[in-house]
Structures are given as structure tokens and as C-alpha cells.
Write a structure and sequence with these properties.
mainly alpha; two-stranded antiparallel sheet; about 70% helix; about 5% strand
């Protein structure tokens, strides 16, 4: 195990945590305009989604270069996003995505 990425994780926490904590820590956040409240509520999921997109759709290649990767995990993410948009709930999308990856692993394509 290596500790090389601990510093990067600490830096990412330092950069993203204040934006995720603003809605929780500021009194009277309900008095902000609705657009501002919606933005503050979506910052955390947006940050997590962007981090996961890099892990799912980008794969390391030769000579330190990266390339687009579209495997079963990418299909699961796209289907998850579609289910969440359709049902307006996160849990059904996650369940479908996990089922796709699990089924792929069972049949040996994962």
C-alpha cells in the first residue's frame, strides 16, 4: 500500500468541503433565492459525479497517456443516470447499475 495519494485526497477535501458544507452550516440558507439553494444542494453530487466519471470513462494507456474506456461499468453508469432521470430517485438507479455489473461478473465479462 502506498501513501502517495493521501496529500491529493487532503487537498481535494480542502477544496470541496467548504462548498458542500455551506448549506449545512449557514443559518438562514432558506432565505436565499431558489436557484442558489438548488446550486448549493447539487455541488456535492456534482463533484462526486465528476470524480466517478473520470474513474469509469478514462483508462490509463501506454507511456502515461489516457484513453476513453467504455466497458460494463460505463454502461452501468449511463443506465443509472437514465433510471435516476426517469424515476427521480437515486436508489433505483444504483440498484440497476449494481445489478448490471454483478450480472456481468457472474457471466464472466466483468
Amino acid at each position: 500500500m502506498t501513501l502517495r495519494l493521501v496529500g491529493l485526497a487532503a487537498l481535494m477535501w480542502l477544496v470541496t468541503y467548504p462548498w458542500r458544507a455551506v448549506p449545512l452550516l449557514s443559518p438562514g440558507v432558506d432565505r436565499l433565492p431558489p436557484a442558489a439553494v438548488a446550486y448549493l444542494r447539487l455541488v456535492g453530487p456534482g463533484v462526486l459525479a465528476s470524480l466517478m466519471a473520470v474513474n469509469v470513462f478514462v483508462a490509463p494507456g501506454s507511456h502515461g497517456r489516457y484513453h476513453f474506456h467504455a466497458g460494463v461499468d460505463a454502461v452501468a453508469v449511463v443506465v443509472c443516470v437514465c433510471v435516476v432521470a426517469w424515476r427521480r430517485k437515486v436508489l433505483p438507479g444504483l440498484v440497476v447499475a449494481v445489478a448490471i455489473v454483478a450480472f456481468s461478473n457472474v457471466i464472466g465479462n466483468g
